[in-house]
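Entry:
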Amino acid sequence: MIAIGEASRQSGVGIETIRYYEREGIVPKPKRAANNRRLYTVHDVGRLLFLKKCRDLGFPLADAKTLLNLSEGGGEDCQSVVKLAELHIANVRDKIAELRRLEAVLRELTANCDSGNVSCPMLSQLRTAQGQ
């Protein structure tokens, strides 16, 4: 059995995040020692690692929980996993497009800046955009 600090170290998931996952029912509550300390199994740490990998890929927590449940369900449902992944890919593409638009706007704003100006054109543009 593993203490929470070691489970955190092995999984890369912070202690407070582990506690949060337990409170929210994302992972089952672990067994407790006589002194009421949490005790984790290798399987518990595996769950935390799985969630960490999902989060590292940018999956929202609800989707990570769904994927965890699918992985532990016995009959892995590839169709459900693919649908979830495709939706996530679409969201990632939308974010990329939004970031590209943001980059273009910032480039345009900063292109108007001249290092010798007393008044910064970018700040002026931002001030006029506030009233709109």
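The two ends are 60 Å apart (CA to CA).
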